[in-house]
Design goal:
single chain, 10 helices, elongated
């Protein structure tokens, strides 16, 4: 009985917040459309967000994608060779690295690094009355604080996914060049024959959608806190968990939509 009451209250709380979330997203998208007309200070926030989310995460992404791609290629090739299907390794590598693993793994890493930081930073500004100070001086906090983070995170996920895909498919070539030069001879030819435009498009769409989900969730829960400082870590946890859930559900939806075409 208690579980039913808890579940009912959780559902009611979710649907009561939904109209506010829709309104917030509308405000965020409309403000992002006119961002280039903003003052230089708002653009500086965008640059700093790109520095933290994209530049600082790039070495981890490059290393991780290179290692994963190389391991997948070397192990997968030996397994498929035993079944006489070694030619499938290129299609497998493209689908896993470019279309599936790249966007999701990059989104998870950005969520773990940036969603918590953005939510807790904005929540701290709310509890310390800095947001009220912005409003008092006629500065819209969504325009000045949320939109640069929204654009910065979305662009960062897109570019990180691009680097992940490139390093994930070039890394195995370098590994094969040192470990088994005979495999490297036909690697690029077989690889480019398996890269299709549809695979690249779905990867790009996923990265953009995931970046939007992360940034919207993080900024929304950062602004959602009220007065207590104990709400700050709760905002960070909510931003991360809801981002993970949103990424998984949107990934399944995009895959279903892609295969239904």
């Amino acid at each position: 009985m208690r579980f039913i009451k808890f579940l009912g209250s959780a559902i009611l709380n979710y649907y009561s917040d939904f109209p506010y979330l829709v309104g917030y997203m509308g405000k965020l998208f409309s403000s992002a459309f006119f961002f280039l007309k903003r003052e230089r200070s708002a653009k500086r926030v965008l640059v700093m967000q790109l520095l933290f989310t994209f530049i600082e995460a790039l070495p981890v992404i490059v290393f991780l994608s290179t290692v994963l791609g190389s391991v997948l290629y070397l192990l997968g090739y030996s397994m498929l060779l035993s079944m006489g299907q070694e030619g499938m390794i290129y299609s497998l590598l493209v689908v896993i690295i470019v279309q599936e693993l790249g966007p999701v793994l990059v989104a998870f890493i950005v969520t773990a690094r940036s969603a918590t930081a953005i939510a807790t930073e904005l929540a701290g500004m709310v509890t310390s009355h800095q947001i009220e100070a912005y409003i008092a001086f006629g500065i819209d906090p969504v325009d000045f604080l949320a939109v640069p983070r929204f654009l910065g995170v979305t662009l960062s996920v897109f570019f990180l996914n691009l680097y992940f895909s490139i390093c994930g498919i070039i890394g195995p070539f370098i590994a094969a060049k040192f470990l088994n030069p005979t495999l490297a001879a036909d690697y690029l030819t077989g690889l480019f024959q398996c890269i299709h435009v549809s695979t690249v498009i779905i990867s790009v769409i996923k990265s953009i959608v995931f970046g939007m989900i992360i940034s919207i969730t993080a900024t929304y829960y950062g602004f959602k806190v009220e007065r207590s400082s104990t709400e700050i870590p709760v905002a960070g946890i909510s931003a991360v968990t809801k981002s993970f859930v949103g990424i998984i559900f949107s990934d399944v939806a995009l895959i279903a939509a892609f295969f239904s075409l």
